[in-house]
Amino acid sequence: MTRRRRQAHEGLCRDRLAQVEARLEELRTKAERSDGNRLELERALDHARGLCNRVLARIESARQASDDAWPFARAQADQAVAEMILAIAEVEQRLSRAAA
């Protein structure tokens, strides 16, 4: 049962990561067309991409964790995913403000 939960969690995190990476590409395209402060938007996108890399590392860490350490590693992965999603939402808000 624990093995299934671990695999399900890993799959869910990887799905979220793939969705966010697609959103990042879309946002990067919008930022390139934006008349706003492109440098600031590019920095925010680079920060979000760094958070994606962090999520990937946390997912891998959770995958390799022992059964005893897995709950803590899972919590770290979940936190990294939440931070990544917040960063993407912030970039989307900046882009919508720049477009207005």
How would you describe what is shown here?
With 100 residues, the chain is an all-alpha fold. Helices cover 89% and strands 0% of the residues. The protein contains three helices and no strands. Helix 1 packs antiparallel against helix 2. The longest helix is centred in the N-terminal third of the chain and has 32 residues. It is elongated, with a radius of gyration of 16 Å. The model has no long low-confidence stretch (mean pLDDT 85).
Give a short summary of the structure.
By secondary structure, this protein is mainly alpha-helical.
**Which range best describes the helical content: under 10%, 10-25%, 25-40%, 40-55%, 55-70% or over 70%?**
over 70%
Q: Describe the main β-sheet briefly.
A: none
Give me the number of helical elements: 3
The poorly predicted ranges are none
